[in-house]
Amino acid sequence: MPESERIDITKPLWDQNTFIGRVKHFAWVTDPRTCVVSDATLDEAKILVEQYKNCSEPPGTTREQIIYAKKLYESAFHPDSGERQNVFGRMSFQVPGGMAITGAMLQWYRTSTAVIFWQWVNQSFNALVNYTNRNANSPVTTTQLGVAYVSATASAMLTALGCRTFWEKRASTLLNRYVPFAAVAAANCVNIPLMRQNELLHGIDVCDENDNTIGKSRVAAAKGISQVVISRIVMCAPGMTILPVVMERLEKYRWMQQIKPLHAPFQVMMVGCFLIFMVPVACALFPQRCKISVKTIAWLEPEEYEILKKNTQGKVPDFVYFNKGL
């Protein structure tokens, strides 16, 4: 490939300092169509990306082939470990997986059994997504995973059942439709921090502007995890807050009452329409390469600040950078 056509394959194709650039990047990398690509093709894409980094790609390789290989690699392999991710835990599976589960939660919310079952399914899916997209430099034990899973599932079920019991005789049917969203929001606040608890306990790697690791920080982990929690809630919010209003209105029409078996497929399809847009938008709310002021670390983590000073021979940068996860 001519030198003039080469790209920096380690960097996104769009400016990540702008919200629009991040939306374009995540719309590209979370494309649901990449979920059906075979493992063999994904491995070939990874090999091509590695070859391109070393300027040793096969003769005749085109720019389009490199960009597509980059897309497959970033959609399916963990940015820290380089390992191929479980297909159901990838962010590119958020649309098909999320639309099916969210649509079901919105459709079957009237009985306690249905609430418990679908919250369990949703939190099992969330736990897999959170584990798959964790910071791989902070390993989690099997016991920690089990505690995180049970705690998140229990919090979702208790919130859902509590809201349903409280609102059942006190609120309208429309307000009862918001029980799934309340449960999902509460569970996200529990599931993600617990699934990534090692980052909060031991800190995550922080780097200088040249990506040289110079220390660890628990404050950086807390900031990254907080941003991920907000993003996940925003991701599901439009579908779970707008669709109940739509269904409440539509179900009053006679023709809608005559096609009750189609209500669930309709809600699944509508949730999918929301998620197609909201997955990249939510992921783009905050930069993936997050930064934090060293002054904040010096204030809240003086011991880590001393390590930073030692590792940089006293030339501590104003900011340090880290991967916040997804």
Automatic annotation (TrEMBL):
Signal peptide: none
Protein name: Sidoreflexin
Principal place of residence: mitochondrion
Swiss-Prot/TrEMBL GO biological process terms: serine import into mitochondrion
One cellular component term from this protein's GO annotations in UniProt: mitochondrial inner membrane
UniProt KW Nucleotidyltransferase keyword: no
InterPro entries named among the record's database cross-references: Mtc (IPR004686)
Subcellular location: Mitochondrion membrane
Bilayer-spanning residue ranges: 225-246, 266-286
Family assignment from sequence similarity: Belongs to the sideroflexin family.
Single GO term (MF): monoatomic ion transmembrane transporter activity
Domain of life of the source: Eukaryota
Keyword flag Disulfide bond: no
Annotated keywords: Amino-acid transport, Membrane, Mitochondrion, Transmembrane, Transmembrane helix, Transport
Membrane topology reported for the UniProt record: Multi-pass membrane protein
